[in-house]
Amino acid sequence: MALFGVKKRLGDMLVEAGKITEEQLMRALEEQKTQKTKLGETLMSLGFISQEDFADFFCRTMGYQSVEPETLKDYDPRALEIVGEALVKKHEVLPFGFDADNVNVINVAMSDPTNLGIIDDIEMASGMEVQPFYSPQSAIAIILDKIYGKKATMEAAEQFEAEHAAEFADEEEAEDDTVGDAPIVKIVRSMIQQAVREGASDIHIEPLEHNVRVRNRVDGMLREDAVYSSNMLSAMTARIKIISGLDISEKRKPQDGRLTYIVDGVEFDVRVSILPTVYGEKTVMRLTKKQGLSQEKKYLGLYPDDEMKLDGIMNNPHGIILVTGPTGSGKSTTCYTVLNELNKPEVNIITVEDPVEANVAGINQVQVNVKAGLTFAGALRSILRQDPDIIMIGEIRDAETAQIAVQASITGHLVISTLHTNSTSASITRLIDMGVEPYMIGDAVVGIIAQRLVRRLCPQCKAGHIATQREKTLLGYTGMEDITVYEPVGCEACGTGYKGRKAIYEIMPISANIRRVLHETVTAEIIQNTAVAEGMNTLQMSGARNVIEGTTSIAEMVRVAYDMDAANEANSEELAAATQAPGV
Known about the structure:
Blueprint: H1 3-16, H2 22-35, H3 39-45, H4 51-62, E1 65-66, H5 69-73, H6 77-83, H7 85-91, E2 94-98, E3 105-110, H8 116-126, E4 129-134, H9 137-163, H10 177-180, H11 183-198, E5 200-207, E6 211-218, E7 221-229, H12 233-243, E8 255-263, E9 266-277, E10 280-289, H13 304-314, E11 319-324, H14 331-342, E12 349-353, E13 364-367, H15 376-383, E14 390-393, H16 399-410, E15 414-419, H17 424-433, H18 438-444, E16 445-457, E17 463-466, H19 469-475, E18 484-487, E19 498-509, H20 512-519, H21 524-533, H22 539-548, H23 554-560, H24 564-579
Parallel strand pairs: 1-4, 3-4, 11-15, 11-16, 12-13, 12-14, 14-15
Antiparallel strand pairs: 2-3, 5-6, 5-10, 6-7, 8-9, 9-10, 16-19, 17-18
Helix pairs in contact: 9-11, 11-12, 15-16, 16-18, 17-21, 18-20, 19-24, 20-21
């Protein structure tokens, strides 16, 4: 039975069961042709079906058992040895144990248990009967990367050292089989793959005085991944320049580029920045899952009351919606999610971005090109002549862009944009600093969303304790009952005590009261107090809510949403308690 036939029938069955639509199946089959991935992996990478739903449907329909990722982490090394590294890597499978009732049966996790050719290969190599289990390819790849990834990278580094990598920097040929086997190519490829599988958002390649350090930013924090010899820097940088379309001969000026990379069937957009330093060129690669920005609103992690506020803001036919926060706080994800919600056949949506972070079907996207004279302000003027209903501006950076955005919103357009400020109220004062009149802001802005990303505590190892009075004060908790708060511990599953991140929000609809304040006296404090009186949760409140629920720790809340007044009050109470202690 041909594997393609099985997949076609499986796709039809998924449609018949209502798991996916006919249009989603057609799109997945088209994507599968170009990416050369399995249908199930393609459907999951496009976000059409969750891993859990696909595993449940596949196993129930095809008659296979599935294996949990936690079980794979506890694999039996003897099973790997019996099958052998070459075969495991070739077929990307994971022998993880033996049948409890029959020692001659080996359990193997596969993303395609219907592939009899792979099963025959393993049975011939091991001399044992194979019991196939279903597991998503991504889960298998993560385990195999931990087992073999670092080893392969270090072997490639040693090979490079042995060969001295003569003049690889001068090779600008395509990645054919010969170049693909070059040690430096393996190192860069492995570096990106490992970063993706760790869930990293950025890769930093840093030249130091005596070596090259590679660090990955995971859950917002940098972790050292590897250290290489200094003489590898030029070849690594040249390789990255080649694949990202940069000038390999230019080493004195900063350069920016981008490339597309596929890891485990998932397409990633990689933005490359190269900066000359005293010890050589530093490279930073920002990794973005191409489908990650196109998600439904329910995946933002909003509380029901905040979701109602966001819905109210989005229902405005015109006005400015601002999303604010520091770099890496998830602003782009929120903007694209709002766009996806508003993207309907009857509206004309145009964006102007620098750079375009994700391609969205049905939306006209414009890339800023300063060298060609296409700035945010210039693009906006042209966009307004394109009969738009909704405009997204990647970022309001200057007074000219701010003024055009305000004028566009007042003339009947819905404008979505970002700002780099610390809170919703600070966004209003920033616009005033840019020269926008307060009364114009009151007429133009319909809502502001401030956000941060907090690290989630690892559910397997977090440890709870009764909150002290100081911790209660930091949380703004005024009740008399004891509450339990949790702290990170660290285990094999997480390493740091944290695993993943969650967004916290401060959502401020511009109400009649806030407009009245804008016409009278304008300070960030008065604006915030007015909004809180109307039911707005500040970032501090949202963080505290997550601490009390056990999602994150107080230290993490303070790190991303520090409130000076709350901290001072907590310290004052702690000092007062200390002075009342016996012997003081």
